[in-house]
Design brief:
about 80% helix, 4 helices, elongated
């Protein structure tokens, strides 16, 4: 569980960084004239924390098949989109502009979700490669020394 929490914290920082990029792009497209105060810096942290909740809730020690992992990721994405749309747009009257903003937010959530998973996969692959190299070096050393 401790290792899973560490992974979730790492994921949180990746998410927050990508949310900042998404907010910048969406803001430039839909409201380039709008200016913010310092309070806006808290939103990516809140959205990042909300995005990590499904990962913490759906934790399992059980080894999952590829199909189970994909289904779990889809469920996580649906939960994240639903909760974030309610948090961001909840209570506003539906209008044409709000629909396009909501669609853009949904698209950015999906892109951030995919990017986070690709980055995590890449980091895990690098770690696995390094571990494999270290294991091979240890095996060679072991074979040479005849221990």
């Amino acid at each position: 569980m401790k290792e899973h929490f560490k992974e979730t914290v790492s994921t949180f920082f990746i998410i927050v960084t990508l949310i900042n990029v998404a907010m910048f792009v969406i803001g430039l497209i839909f409201r380039p004239e709008q200016k913010f105060g310092y309070e806006v810096f808290i939103y990516p942290l809140i959205y990042g924390a909300i995005s990590c909740i499904p990962n913490l809730i759906m934790y399992t020690k059980k080894e999952m098949s590829v199909t189970q992992v994909i289904i779990r990721k889809i469920i996580q994405l649906i939960l994240i989109v639903a909760v974030l749309l309610v948090a961001i747009l909840g209570g506003q009257p539906l209008s044409g502009e709000l629909f396009f903003v909501g669609a853009s937010i949904t698209g950015s959530i999906v892109l951030v979700f995919i990017a986070v998973n690709v980055i995590e996969w890449w980091l895990a692959s690098k770690t696995a490669g390094k571990m494999t190299e270290d294991l091979e070096a240890w095996k060679e050393k072991f074979a040479r020394e005849g221990l």
